[in-house]
Every structure is written in structure tokens, then in C-alpha cells.
């Protein structure tokens, strides 16, 4: 099993035998930080762009948005905050763009944490200006709703009453976009954009499964592997994985944005991490070999 | 850019660089900004809870619509605060019991819609049949691909599940077979953990790249348009 | 008369009286319960409350659906809104619990105020940091509520009064200028730690670890465009297409990771179900389930 603890005792034993590789194992961590920062800054300043090919999971999400029937809403549940903004921000932007592109009316909502409502609102407002979309008619923001599973259960039978007021404090019943929206079955697709584990299980368990409302998602890369089983079973129609998922969606709808801007730096940073692992292990093996022969 | 937008830009840049100063070593500036962060988070949580939830769903029905019985909601909600009193803490446990019971009940509701499709989807066709007109044995690439994928899927699933089955000792004929299956399951788990690690690296690096983009494109780029242009 | 007395009160004075009376009644009830219920009675009450609330939500799901409920909901029959005996109660009960739960946000805030308050009052080392906590807390609280109370239109017009501008700009500086960037920067530190760990700590000491790292390398390269570029020479058709890094990465995720994750998830699900059953039936022991001595 790979040693995750990095016990310095074992490395110290290797170092004491001397040698270039042993000394390389002991370099201060600031050099590692500086190297990482240098590679990222290099690519931010002088990006070497590589083409982004949309994967099947991203296509699934885009097709799900296109398939939303006329008269139904897309509900984008922006359950993220600035701790994951680098991934979930571009993902939200890509999904919002896709909705505008395919002329699907959408609403934003946040179940947790509260910050998501404002951050997603900022993103949607900016993009709405480009499409000359009107708040309350083409899109709306229901805001942060405390209660997670309680909110979802209440929404099943009466969405306007459960939502109450929108992000700006206006009663949602007064918004033109809410005309004809009564129960959760009037929602054509739920797209969950999140970095929090557990939210999807509630959406699928309380809304997608029992009510048959289609569900898609955009996850941070760290949690995406755990949701591939739901993709396989068809409970999730499509999925964006991390910033790359956002880049793929941007390439699908031909609107390069933040996702694509990250990709070149991301690529080279991954290569650097792989080199760190290889050099680190090579040095460890060679230093130990020298110690044994010495 | 307006004065406020420039103030926001500089505040964000200084805050970001202060946090990064901790990479060199612990220092008073990074500690100060940590405390500021906690204070802002606590304040925002209260604001968001009132403006986005309580005002519309509790205050307005009680005070504007006259539904006085909503006053019982804070009575029950504030029972939680008795956790700080040794004598009265049982009332807090009463309120917690309500929520624990609700959570259990909600989990019972969620369980079948969530996991039964997972079980059904695990029954992959081990001898795929594409259509009635096709010959019973097809040597096409698609058929072989489906066979291999389905067998592999089922094998990985069963061996991984056998790894977590601790009710039978890995002794005797049956036990040893289970032990071998569990060993294979562990290998497949290592592959899954490797995939998770790869994705974790991707996620963490994205967070840093996002911050560097802000510092270079937005902050420095505001004064050096060439840099701002790189971000488009 | 009873229904009008128990129903909504439109006039202010009766409303205030009703609220005060309700608070008084609640206080009396809690006092009586505390005074006359012994430890066993209290535990019994907690067990009953836990059971009933869990029963309500669980049973509503399992009871057969009928075309009519036993008592009218007042809602029109929307979209075949069938339900059972308990269905009309789900929505109001969920809303009530969401509101009750919202009052608990103060628990964390109270704890923070206690800790930092002590630091400031006793002038402990670094007390100015705790003072900064209070400053930022009250600043965000004040500006947040103030900005919200103005109900500024969307998009925000360029012509705002001085008060509106101070409220809005103050809030935006605190939120966009400090809160969001601080959180983003704090979590972005993880990138450095993972880089440091990759070099200094991740050691491949066994075949299993080697397998894990190979899978990680494939996924890491497959998830970024450079991986596709590295294997661009391999045709994207036929069986050989699997050797392209982006396809190989996707295959690892779907064919190896997915069933393994499902195996883990099903095991966790059964465990969680058993745990939920124990909590519902109050069979659990521990800090929150037992009387404090």
C-alpha cells in the first residue's frame, strides 16, 4: 500500500547514506510549491491550448437539457460555495449558457450552503445580459432554502408555497416564469451543481426516483467517481466532471469560457504531479539501494 | 471600473495573498485573515437564514398573516440551546430526537428509489442479445465488447462486495474461495482508489488555478491590459 | 368561536395576546415536564417523539396510495395528486421542520462568540484576532440585513441614493472582496499540499500500490486534454481506440471504478439502513442519546 504518512524517519535513513537522490528527497517543500506555482503561472500567461473533446457523460447532460419539454423549467440547484468555485463556477456558467442557447427557461436554487445562491446569481446575471434575458421571465433565482430534504419533500406537492420568496425577497408567485409551475412534475430537468456529498442522494431518493423528474449533475472532480454507478443505472442522465466537464460543455455549445481557460494549466500541472510521484519514488528506490549497498 | 469594484479587487487580492503567506510559515497576517473569514462566514450564515428562509416562511405567516401558532416553531427550535445547560439538556435531546427520527424516516423513503435501480442495473446481460434477427452467436466487435464489459462489471461488483463480507471466515473450502474473491476485490478497489486519487488531484489543482487566474487576469490584468487579454 | 379564536388573527392586539399566551403555555408545559418527569419519563418522551416523527415520514412512503385522501386537503387534484392518509401532512410538516431547524444556526455562532469573547475579555495572546472576528461578524450581519431590507431591483440601477449605495457597496466589499476570496484561497492551499505529498509521501511499496498509481496516472492524463494529445496518433475507431488516454481513462471510470463504487455504496447503504433503524427505535447509546450525568 502506498505510504500516505510520509514518515521522515524512513526518508531520513535513506538520506543519511548520502547521494544525489537522497538529498533530492530532502529538498524543502517551498521548492515544490514554487515549481507548481511557476508551471501554473507559465500556462496562465502563455497557454498551450489543446483541443477539448466532449465525453459521453457531458453529452448526456447537454442532451438532457435539449430534451426538456416546452413549458417546463430546468431547475439548477447551485449547492456550492467559493471553496469549489474554480470548478463549480464554470460548470454553473456552462449549464446556464446551455439553457439560454437551447432557449430553456431555468430557475436557480440553493439547498446548502447559503453562499451558492448569490454566487450563482452573479454568474447567471452576467450571462443573462449577453442573451438579453429578463429576470422573472426567462430565468429566476429562488434563493437559498434551508431544510434540504424537508424542502424537497414539501416541493413535491406545492412548489410556490415551499419556495415562498425569491432571492430578492419577491413572492415567487408574482414571477411570470412560475406560471404553470405547481408541483415538482412541472420541472423538466433538475441539474445539481455541487461539491457536497449527500445532496444527490436526496434529489434522487425524493424527487428523481419517486416523482420521475429527470436528473443530471455537475460535480467537483473529487466526488465524481462515486456517482458513476448512478450514471450506469440511468438515475443520472448526464454529468460534468470538474473543470474539464465545464470545458467540454463549453466546447459542445461553442462558447469558450472559464472551463477552457483552466485546461492548459490543468494539463501541465497534472504532468508535474506525475513527475513528482515518479521522481519521488525513483529517488526513494535509488537512495535505498545505495544505502543497502553502502 | 467603479471605486467599489476596485476596492473589491484589492481586498480580494490582499486576502488571497495573505492566505498564501502561510505556505512559507505561520504568521500574524494569515492568522488575522483566518479569523476575519470565520467572522464573515458566521455573519453571512445568520443573514442568509433570516432573509432566505425565516422571514418568508416564519415571520411573514406569523406577523403579517396572523398565524400566531407559528410561535411554537422557535419554541421547539430554541430547545436545542438547552444543550448548554446540564440540568435542562434533556429538552435539547428531545428536539434532537425529533430530527433524528425525521432523518431516519426520510432515509427509509429514500432507500428504495435510490438503491433498487442500482441493484437492478447490476444484472447485466451476460449473453447480450441485440435483436431477434441476429444470429445466436455473433462475433462482431460490439457483441464481444458488450460481453467483456458486462462480465467484467459483474465480476468487479461481486468481488468488491465479497471483500466487505465479514460474516464468514476465510477458512475451509468455502471460506478460502471467499478469501480469494475478496483478494481480487481488493485489487479492483485499488484501481477505484487510484481513479479517485487522480480525480482528487484534478479537483485540488483546479482550485489553485482559479485563484491564480483571478490574481493575474483580474487584479494585475486591471493595470496591465495585455494580461487581462490572455484570459479571453 | 373556538375556530376563530384558534385561527389566524388579523388585528395586532389579539395577535400579540395569542403569541404571548402561546409562549406562556409553552413555558408552563416545559416547566411541568421538567418538574414532574423523571429520567425514565424524559427518556420515554424522547423515544416516543423520535419514533413518531420517523414513523410519519416512513409510513407515508409505504402506505398504499389511494385516489382520495380521508380528509380534504383543499388542494386541487393536480397531476393525479393521489396520496394516502398521511400525504397531506408531508408538505406542512416538512415546512415546519425546515423552519424549526433554521433556529439552530445560532448554535455554532453562540459557540464561536463564547470562545472569541473569552479571548477578548481576558486579553489572551492573539486577542486582537478574536476582536477582528467580532468586527467582521457584525459588519457582515449589519450590512447583509441592511442591503436586503432595501430590496434593490435587479439589475442594480446606476442611480442609487447615498444610503443605498453605502449598504450595497459595503455588503459587496465584504462578500465579494473578502468572504468569497478567503474561502477560495483557503481551500486552494490543498493543491500545494497534494503536490508536496506526491513528491515526499506517496511511496509505492507493493504491487497493489503500484496498481493504484497506474490507475491514477491513466485517469490524471485522461481527464486533461494533454492526455488526448499524447495519444493523438492512435486511431479513434475500433478496439485500438481504447489505448487513447481519454478513452482509457473513461473506460477505467465506467468499467472498473463504477462497479467498485457500487459495491461500496451498497454496503454503506445497508449499514446506513441498519443505523437508521437503530436511531429510529432509540436503540443507540452515546452522547446525544443518554442522560448527562
Low-confidence stretches of chain B: none
In the residues of chain B, how many domains can be counted?
3
Q: Radius of gyration of chain C, Cα only, in angstroms?
A: 29 Å
Helix content of chain B: over 70%
Oligomer: heterotrimer
The ordered string of helix (H) and strand (E) elements of chain B is HHHHHHH
Average pLDDT, all residues of chain C? 88
Strand content of the residues of chain C, in percent?
A: under 5%
How many separate structural domains of chain C? Answer: 3
Sheet having the most strands of chain C: none
Tell me the total number of β-strands of chain C. Answer: 0
What is the tally of beta strands of chain B? 0
Rg of chain B, rounded, reads 29 Å
Tell me the structural class of chain B: mainly alpha
Would you mind describing this structure in some detail?
The complex is a heterotrimer of chains A (294), B (232) and C (293). Chain A is of the alpha/beta class and 294 residues long. Chain A contains 12 helices and 6 strands. Chain A has a 6-stranded parallel beta sheet with strand order 3-2-1-4-5-6, sandwiched between helices. The two termini of chain A are 27 Å apart. Chain B has 232 residues and is mainly α. Chain B has 3 domains: 1-66; 68-123, no CATH class; 143-232, no CATH class. Helices cover 76% and strands 0% of the residues of chain B. Chain B has helices at 3-20, 28-64, 72-77, 89-122, 141-163, 172-223, 225-230. Chain C has 293 residues and is mostly helical. In chain C, 71% of the residues lie in helices and 0% in strands. Chain C has 10 helices and no strands. In chain C, helix 5 (105-121) packs across helix 6. The interface between A and C is large, with 82 and 72 residues.
Write the layout of secondary structure elements.
The complex is a heterotrimer of chains A (294), B (232) and C (293).
Chain A: H1 8-15, H2 20-25, H3 29-45, H4 56-66, E1 73-79, H5 85-101, E2 106-110, H6 115-131, E3 139-144, H7 149-155, H8 159-163, E4 187-194, H9 199-211, E5 215-219, H10 228-232, E6 239-241, H11 242-252, H12 258-293
Parallel strand pairs in A: 1-2, 1-4, 2-3, 4-5, 5-6
Chain B: H1 3-20, H2 28-64, H3 72-77, H4 89-122, H5 141-163, H6 172-223, H7 225-230
Helix pairs in contact in B: 1-2, 1-6, 5-6
Chain C: H1 2-6, H2 12-36, H3 39-62, H4 87-102, H5 105-121, H6 127-149, H7 162-200, H8 207-222, H9 225-230, H10 245-280
